[in-house]
Protein backbone atom coordinates (compact mmCIF):
# COMPACT_ATOMS: atom_id res chain seq x y z
CA UNK A 1 0.00 0.00 0.00
CA UNK A 2 1.40 3.37 -1.04
CA UNK A 3 1.33 6.05 1.64
CA UNK A 4 -0.39 9.25 0.63
CA UNK A 5 0.28 12.06 0.07
CA UNK A 6 3.31 11.15 -2.05
CA UNK A 7 6.64 12.72 -1.05
CA UNK A 8 8.83 14.63 -3.46
CA UNK A 9 12.36 13.30 -4.18
CA UNK A 10 15.52 15.09 -3.11
CA UNK A 11 16.12 18.48 -4.73
CA UNK A 12 19.67 17.97 -6.07
CA UNK A 13 18.62 16.58 -9.43
CA UNK A 14 16.37 19.60 -10.11
CA UNK A 15 18.65 22.49 -9.21
CA UNK A 16 19.62 23.10 -12.83
CA UNK A 17 16.34 21.99 -14.41
CA UNK A 18 14.01 24.61 -12.93
CA UNK A 19 14.11 28.43 -12.92
CA UNK A 20 14.25 30.17 -9.50
CA UNK A 21 10.54 31.03 -9.33
CA UNK A 22 9.55 27.42 -10.05
CA UNK A 23 12.08 26.17 -7.49
CA UNK A 24 10.32 28.39 -4.97
CA UNK A 25 6.98 26.87 -5.96
CA UNK A 26 8.48 23.44 -5.47
CA UNK A 27 9.74 24.35 -2.00
CA UNK A 28 6.26 25.49 -1.02
CA UNK A 29 4.78 22.28 -2.44
CA UNK A 30 7.19 20.11 -0.48
CA UNK A 31 6.22 21.95 2.69
CA UNK A 32 2.51 21.57 1.98
CA UNK A 33 2.91 17.81 1.63
CA UNK A 34 5.48 17.08 4.34
CA UNK A 35 4.11 19.29 7.14
CA UNK A 36 0.51 18.13 7.42
CA UNK A 37 0.19 19.50 10.95
CA UNK A 38 0.87 23.07 9.83
CA UNK A 39 -1.45 26.04 9.53
CA UNK A 40 -2.42 25.44 5.89
CA UNK A 41 -5.84 23.92 5.31
CA UNK A 42 -6.46 21.43 2.52
CA UNK A 43 -7.63 24.00 -0.03
CA UNK A 44 -4.56 26.16 0.53
CA UNK A 45 -2.34 23.11 -0.04
CA UNK A 46 -4.23 22.40 -3.26
CA UNK A 47 -3.58 25.96 -4.49
CA UNK A 48 0.14 25.64 -3.75
CA UNK A 49 0.42 22.33 -5.60
CA UNK A 50 -1.65 23.60 -8.53
CA UNK A 51 0.73 26.52 -9.04
CA UNK A 52 3.69 24.16 -9.22
CA UNK A 53 1.79 21.75 -11.49
CA UNK A 54 0.93 24.57 -13.89
CA UNK A 55 4.58 25.61 -14.13
CA UNK A 56 5.67 22.01 -14.74
CA UNK A 57 3.04 21.61 -17.48
CA UNK A 58 4.37 24.77 -19.12
CA UNK A 59 7.93 23.45 -19.12
CA UNK A 60 6.98 19.95 -20.25
CA UNK A 61 4.73 21.27 -23.00
CA UNK A 62 7.84 22.39 -24.89
CA UNK A 63 9.96 19.36 -23.97
CA UNK A 64 8.52 16.34 -22.15
CA UNK A 65 11.69 14.23 -22.30
CA UNK A 66 12.65 14.77 -18.65
CA UNK A 67 11.74 11.79 -16.48
CA UNK A 68 12.33 13.70 -13.25
CA UNK A 69 10.01 16.58 -14.26
CA UNK A 70 7.31 14.17 -15.37
CA UNK A 71 7.67 12.41 -12.04
CA UNK A 72 7.31 15.73 -10.22
CA UNK A 73 4.13 16.50 -12.14
CA UNK A 74 2.51 13.14 -11.43
CA UNK A 75 3.36 13.47 -7.72
CA UNK A 76 1.69 16.91 -7.72
CA UNK A 77 -1.43 15.67 -9.47
CA UNK A 78 -1.83 12.64 -7.19
CA UNK A 79 -1.36 14.77 -4.07
CA UNK A 80 -3.86 17.39 -5.24
CA UNK A 81 -6.43 14.64 -5.82
CA UNK A 82 -5.62 13.28 -2.37
CA UNK A 83 -6.30 16.65 -0.74
CA UNK A 84 -9.51 17.03 -2.75
CA UNK A 85 -10.56 13.70 -1.28
CA UNK A 86 -9.79 14.87 2.24
CA UNK A 87 -11.57 18.21 1.98
CA UNK A 88 -14.61 16.48 0.45
CA UNK A 89 -14.80 14.06 3.36
CA UNK A 90 -14.35 16.96 5.77
CA UNK A 91 -17.25 18.88 4.21
CA UNK A 92 -19.57 15.85 4.13
CA UNK A 93 -18.82 15.00 7.74
CA UNK A 94 -19.70 18.56 8.73
CA UNK A 95 -22.91 18.41 6.71
CA UNK A 96 -24.20 15.12 8.11
CA UNK A 97 -27.00 15.62 10.62
CA UNK A 98 -26.65 19.40 10.66
CA UNK A 99 -28.96 22.30 9.94
CA UNK A 100 -28.68 24.77 7.04
CA UNK A 101 -26.50 22.55 4.84
CA UNK A 102 -28.23 23.09 1.50
CA UNK A 103 -24.98 23.67 -0.38
CA UNK A 104 -22.69 21.46 1.67
CA UNK A 105 -23.43 18.17 -0.05
CA UNK A 106 -22.99 19.65 -3.53
CA UNK A 107 -19.76 21.31 -2.38
CA UNK A 108 -18.38 18.02 -1.09
CA UNK A 109 -19.37 16.36 -4.35
CA UNK A 110 -17.69 19.08 -6.42
CA UNK A 111 -14.34 18.40 -4.72
CA UNK A 112 -14.62 14.70 -5.55
CA UNK A 113 -15.44 15.56 -9.18
CA UNK A 114 -12.36 17.77 -9.37
CA UNK A 115 -10.18 15.07 -7.83
CA UNK A 116 -11.48 12.45 -10.24
CA UNK A 117 -10.97 14.68 -13.24
CA UNK A 118 -7.44 15.52 -12.20
CA UNK A 119 -6.59 11.83 -11.78
CA UNK A 120 -7.92 11.19 -15.28
CA UNK A 121 -5.69 14.01 -16.54
CA UNK A 122 -2.74 12.37 -14.74
CA UNK A 123 -3.52 8.97 -16.26
CA UNK A 124 -3.73 10.44 -19.76
CA UNK A 125 -0.43 12.23 -19.20
CA UNK A 126 1.29 9.04 -18.07
CA UNK A 127 0.03 7.07 -21.05
CA UNK A 128 0.94 9.75 -23.60
CA UNK A 129 4.36 10.72 -22.27
CA UNK A 130 7.50 9.00 -23.51
CA UNK A 131 9.46 9.73 -20.33
CA UNK A 132 7.68 8.26 -17.29
CA UNK A 133 9.74 6.27 -14.81
CA UNK A 134 8.02 3.05 -13.67
CA UNK A 135 4.97 3.73 -15.82
CA UNK A 136 3.11 0.58 -14.79
CA UNK A 137 3.22 1.26 -11.05
CA UNK A 138 2.23 4.90 -11.54
CA UNK A 139 -0.73 3.86 -13.69
CA UNK A 140 -1.80 1.34 -11.04
CA UNK A 141 -1.62 3.96 -8.30
CA UNK A 142 -3.71 6.48 -10.26
CA UNK A 143 -6.25 3.85 -11.32
CA UNK A 144 -6.63 2.70 -7.69
CA UNK A 145 -7.26 6.29 -6.61
CA UNK A 146 -9.83 6.77 -9.38
CA UNK A 147 -11.69 3.66 -8.21
CA UNK A 148 -11.55 4.87 -4.60
CA UNK A 149 -12.93 8.33 -5.40
CA UNK A 150 -15.71 6.78 -7.46
CA UNK A 151 -16.61 4.68 -4.43
CA UNK A 152 -16.56 7.79 -2.25
CA UNK A 153 -19.07 9.42 -4.59
CA UNK A 154 -21.39 6.50 -3.91
CA UNK A 155 -20.70 6.62 -0.18
CA UNK A 156 -21.54 10.32 -0.20
CA UNK A 157 -24.99 9.52 -1.59
CA UNK A 158 -25.49 6.85 1.07
CA UNK A 159 -24.58 9.27 3.87
CA UNK A 160 -26.89 11.90 2.40
CA UNK A 161 -29.66 9.28 2.44
CA UNK A 162 -28.90 8.47 6.09
CA UNK A 163 -29.02 12.15 6.90
CA UNK A 164 -32.52 12.28 5.41
CA UNK A 165 -33.57 9.25 7.46
CA UNK A 166 -32.16 10.89 10.55
CA UNK A 167 -34.23 14.00 9.87
CA UNK A 168 -37.37 11.88 9.52
CA UNK A 169 -36.78 10.33 12.90
CA UNK A 170 -35.97 13.62 14.51
CA UNK A 171 -39.02 15.44 13.14
CA UNK A 172 -37.58 18.90 13.75
CA UNK A 173 -37.84 18.52 17.54
CA UNK A 174 -34.53 19.80 18.74
CA UNK A 175 -34.46 18.34 22.26
CA UNK A 176 -37.46 16.03 22.24
CA UNK A 177 -37.33 12.38 23.19
CA UNK A 178 -38.73 10.51 20.23
CA UNK A 179 -41.48 7.98 20.98
CA UNK A 180 -41.44 5.45 18.19
CA UNK A 181 -44.85 4.46 16.85
CA UNK A 182 -45.80 2.13 14.01
CA UNK A 183 -46.32 5.07 11.67
CA UNK A 184 -42.74 6.18 12.35
CA UNK A 185 -41.48 2.80 11.15
CA UNK A 186 -43.67 3.02 8.06
CA UNK A 187 -42.19 6.43 7.30
CA UNK A 188 -38.67 5.06 7.66
CA UNK A 189 -39.49 2.10 5.41
CA UNK A 190 -40.83 4.33 2.63
CA UNK A 191 -37.45 4.63 0.87
CA UNK A 192 -35.52 1.89 2.66
CA UNK A 193 -35.36 -0.43 -0.38
CA UNK A 194 -34.03 2.37 -2.59
CA UNK A 195 -31.43 3.27 0.01
CA UNK A 196 -30.47 -0.39 0.40
CA UNK A 197 -29.85 -0.58 -3.36
CA UNK A 198 -27.40 2.31 -3.04
CA UNK A 199 -25.60 0.55 -0.18
CA UNK A 200 -25.44 -2.74 -2.08
CA UNK A 201 -24.11 -0.79 -5.05
CA UNK A 202 -21.32 0.49 -2.79
CA UNK A 203 -20.55 -3.08 -1.75
CA UNK A 204 -20.37 -4.19 -5.39
CA UNK A 205 -18.00 -1.32 -6.22
CA UNK A 206 -15.81 -1.87 -3.14
CA UNK A 207 -15.36 -5.54 -4.00
CA UNK A 208 -13.77 -4.49 -7.30
CA UNK A 209 -11.29 -2.14 -5.63
CA UNK A 210 -7.92 -2.85 -4.07
CA UNK A 211 -7.75 -2.61 -0.30
CA UNK A 212 -6.46 0.58 1.31
CA UNK A 213 -7.03 2.98 4.19
CA UNK A 214 -10.66 3.48 3.19
CA UNK A 215 -11.51 0.16 1.52
CA UNK A 216 -10.95 -2.33 4.34
CA UNK A 217 -12.71 -4.97 6.44
CA UNK A 218 -14.42 -2.30 8.54
CA UNK A 219 -16.01 -0.75 5.46
CA UNK A 220 -17.34 -4.11 4.29
CA UNK A 221 -18.75 -4.83 7.76
CA UNK A 222 -20.45 -1.42 7.84
CA UNK A 223 -22.00 -1.78 4.38
CA UNK A 224 -23.22 -5.31 5.07
CA UNK A 225 -24.75 -4.25 8.38
CA UNK A 226 -26.45 -1.24 6.81
CA UNK A 227 -27.85 -3.35 3.94
CA UNK A 228 -29.52 -5.75 6.36
CA UNK A 229 -30.77 -2.90 8.54
CA UNK A 230 -32.46 -1.04 5.69
CA UNK A 231 -34.04 -4.16 4.20
CA UNK A 232 -35.32 -5.23 7.61
CA UNK A 233 -37.48 -2.08 7.66
CA UNK A 234 -39.18 -3.13 4.44
CA UNK A 235 -39.72 -6.70 5.66
CA UNK A 236 -41.24 -5.44 8.91
CA UNK A 237 -43.48 -3.09 6.94
CA UNK A 238 -44.75 -6.14 5.03
CA UNK A 239 -45.47 -7.95 8.33
CA UNK A 240 -42.62 -10.39 7.67
CA UNK A 241 -41.37 -10.04 11.23
CA UNK A 242 -39.49 -13.36 11.18
CA UNK A 243 -37.44 -12.20 8.21
CA UNK A 244 -37.06 -8.72 9.72
CA UNK A 245 -35.64 -10.22 12.92
CA UNK A 246 -33.22 -12.38 10.94
CA UNK A 247 -32.02 -9.34 9.02
CA UNK A 248 -31.58 -7.14 12.08
CA UNK A 249 -29.61 -9.93 13.77
CA UNK A 250 -27.30 -10.11 10.75
CA UNK A 251 -26.96 -6.35 10.99
CA UNK A 252 -25.89 -6.73 14.63
CA UNK A 253 -23.49 -9.52 13.64
CA UNK A 254 -21.67 -7.37 11.09
CA UNK A 255 -21.66 -4.24 13.22
CA UNK A 256 -20.11 -6.28 16.06
CA UNK A 257 -16.96 -6.49 13.92
CA UNK A 258 -16.33 -2.74 14.22
CA UNK A 259 -17.76 -1.64 17.58
CA UNK A 260 -16.68 -2.33 21.15
CA UNK A 261 -18.33 -5.25 22.91
CA UNK A 262 -19.58 -2.89 25.59
CA UNK A 263 -21.70 -1.13 22.96
CA UNK A 264 -23.38 -4.42 22.11
CA UNK A 265 -23.82 -5.79 25.62
CA UNK A 266 -25.93 -2.85 26.81
CA UNK A 267 -28.87 -2.53 24.39
CA UNK A 268 -30.40 0.91 24.04
CA UNK A 269 -33.74 -0.06 25.54
CA UNK A 270 -32.66 -2.53 28.24
CA UNK A 271 -33.48 -0.10 31.02
CA UNK A 272 -36.76 1.19 29.63
CA UNK A 273 -38.95 -1.37 27.90
CA UNK A 274 -42.29 0.40 28.24
CA UNK A 275 -41.74 2.72 25.33
CA UNK A 276 -39.44 2.70 22.30
CA UNK A 277 -37.20 5.73 22.51
CA UNK A 278 -34.28 7.19 20.65
CA UNK A 279 -32.63 9.58 23.05
CA UNK A 280 -29.61 11.81 22.87
CA UNK A 281 -28.21 10.08 19.80
CA UNK A 282 -30.44 12.22 17.60
CA UNK A 283 -29.59 15.64 18.97
CA UNK A 284 -28.71 17.97 16.13
CA UNK A 285 -25.27 19.42 15.86
CA UNK A 286 -24.20 22.75 14.39
CA UNK A 287 -22.69 22.76 10.93
CA UNK A 288 -19.21 24.17 10.48
CA UNK A 289 -18.13 24.11 6.81
CA UNK A 290 -14.99 22.04 6.49
CA UNK A 291 -12.07 23.41 4.56
CA UNK A 292 -9.62 21.06 6.19
CA UNK A 293 -8.30 20.41 9.62
CA UNK A 294 -5.30 22.16 11.09
CA UNK A 295 -4.83 19.30 13.53
CA UNK A 296 -3.24 15.96 12.70
CA UNK A 297 -5.61 14.39 10.12
CA UNK A 298 -6.89 10.85 10.59
CA UNK A 299 -4.98 9.55 7.57
CA UNK A 300 -1.67 10.24 9.29
CA UNK A 301 -2.33 7.59 11.91
CA UNK A 302 -2.38 3.80 11.64
CA UNK A 303 -5.96 3.59 10.38
CA UNK A 304 -5.69 0.80 7.82
CA UNK A 305 -8.49 -1.23 9.42
CA UNK A 306 -10.51 1.57 10.99
CA UNK A 307 -13.80 2.81 9.64
CA UNK A 308 -13.84 6.06 7.71
CA UNK A 309 -14.59 8.84 10.28
CA UNK A 310 -17.55 10.04 8.20
CA UNK A 311 -19.13 6.59 8.44
CA UNK A 312 -18.10 6.17 12.07
CA UNK A 313 -20.09 9.30 12.90
CA UNK A 314 -23.24 7.93 11.24
CA UNK A 315 -22.73 4.70 13.18
CA UNK A 316 -22.31 6.27 16.61
CA UNK A 317 -24.81 9.07 16.07
CA UNK A 318 -27.66 7.21 14.41
CA UNK A 319 -27.29 3.63 13.19
CA UNK A 320 -26.24 1.83 16.35
CA UNK A 321 -29.12 3.22 18.47
CA UNK A 322 -31.52 2.53 15.60
CA UNK A 323 -30.36 -1.08 15.28
CA UNK A 324 -31.17 -1.82 18.91
CA UNK A 325 -34.44 0.08 18.79
CA UNK A 326 -35.57 -1.96 15.78
CA UNK A 327 -34.27 -5.19 17.25
CA UNK A 328 -36.44 -4.67 20.32
CA UNK A 329 -39.52 -3.57 18.37
CA UNK A 330 -39.32 -6.49 15.93
CA UNK A 331 -39.04 -9.02 18.77
CA UNK A 332 -41.91 -7.47 20.70
CA UNK A 333 -44.21 -7.47 17.68
CA UNK A 334 -43.36 -11.02 16.68
CA UNK A 335 -43.66 -12.43 20.21
CA UNK A 336 -46.99 -10.74 20.94
CA UNK A 337 -48.71 -10.41 17.55
CA UNK A 338 -47.30 -12.27 14.53
CA UNK A 339 -45.70 -15.43 16.00
CA UNK A 340 -43.62 -16.09 12.87
CA UNK A 341 -40.54 -18.29 12.74
CA UNK A 342 -37.27 -16.40 12.56
CA UNK A 343 -35.20 -16.77 9.39
CA UNK A 344 -31.62 -16.91 10.63
CA UNK A 345 -29.86 -18.39 7.59
CA UNK A 346 -27.85 -15.61 5.94
CA UNK A 347 -27.85 -17.27 2.52
CA UNK A 348 -31.66 -17.28 2.51
CA UNK A 349 -31.78 -13.66 3.63
CA UNK A 350 -29.37 -12.59 0.90
CA UNK A 351 -31.67 -14.12 -1.71
CA UNK A 352 -34.05 -11.27 -0.83
CA UNK A 353 -31.45 -8.60 -1.63
CA UNK A 354 -32.29 -6.35 -4.58
CA UNK A 355 -29.73 -5.57 -7.25
CA UNK A 356 -27.33 -2.82 -6.27
CA UNK A 357 -27.67 0.62 -7.81
CA UNK A 358 -24.76 2.91 -8.68
CA UNK A 359 -25.30 6.49 -9.88
CA UNK A 360 -23.56 7.84 -12.94
CA UNK A 361 -20.05 8.95 -12.09
CA UNK A 362 -19.26 12.59 -12.67
CA UNK A 363 -15.89 14.29 -13.02
CA UNK A 364 -14.52 17.58 -14.25
CA UNK A 365 -12.30 17.72 -17.32
CA UNK A 366 -8.98 19.42 -16.67
CA UNK A 367 -6.72 20.99 -19.27
CA UNK A 368 -3.56 23.07 -19.48
CA UNK A 369 -4.07 26.52 -20.99
CA UNK A 370 -0.90 27.57 -22.83
CA UNK A 371 -1.90 31.24 -22.88
CA UNK A 372 -2.36 31.58 -19.14
CA UNK A 373 0.02 28.74 -18.24
CA UNK A 374 -2.65 27.39 -15.89
CA UNK A 375 -3.89 23.89 -15.22
CA UNK A 376 -7.59 24.17 -14.43
CA UNK A 377 -10.99 22.52 -15.00
CA UNK A 378 -12.68 23.45 -18.25
CA UNK A 379 -15.74 25.68 -17.79
CA UNK A 380 -18.95 23.60 -17.62
CA UNK A 381 -16.83 20.51 -18.06
CA UNK A 382 -18.57 18.01 -15.79
CA UNK A 383 -18.96 14.59 -17.34
CA UNK A 384 -21.60 12.12 -16.25
CA UNK A 385 -24.77 12.69 -14.25
CA UNK A 386 -25.06 14.67 -11.05
CA UNK A 387 -25.34 12.56 -7.96
CA UNK A 388 -25.92 15.09 -5.17
UniProtKB/TrEMBL annotation:
- Its domain of life? Eukaryota
Q: Which InterPro entries match?
A: DUF5355
Q: Which GO terms describe its biological process?
A: negative regulation of transcription by RNA polymerase II; nuclear-transcribed mRNA catabolic process, non-stop decay
Pfam annotation, one family: DUF5355
Name of the protein: Uncharacterized protein
| Source organism | Zygosaccharomyces rouxii
- Lineage, top ranks: Eukaryota, Fungi, Dikarya, Ascomycota, Saccharomycotina
Amino acid sequence: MVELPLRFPELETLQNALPPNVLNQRENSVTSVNKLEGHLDFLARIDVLLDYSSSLCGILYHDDSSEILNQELIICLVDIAFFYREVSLDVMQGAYGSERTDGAWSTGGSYLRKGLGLLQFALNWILSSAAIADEQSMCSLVEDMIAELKLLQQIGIVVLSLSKLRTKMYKDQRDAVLDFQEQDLKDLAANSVLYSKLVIGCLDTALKCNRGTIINNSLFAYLNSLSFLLLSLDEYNKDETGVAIGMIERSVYYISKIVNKSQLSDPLLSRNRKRDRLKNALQKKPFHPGTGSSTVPWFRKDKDQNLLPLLQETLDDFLLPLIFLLRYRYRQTNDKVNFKSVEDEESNLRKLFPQGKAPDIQFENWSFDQRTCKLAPKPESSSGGRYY
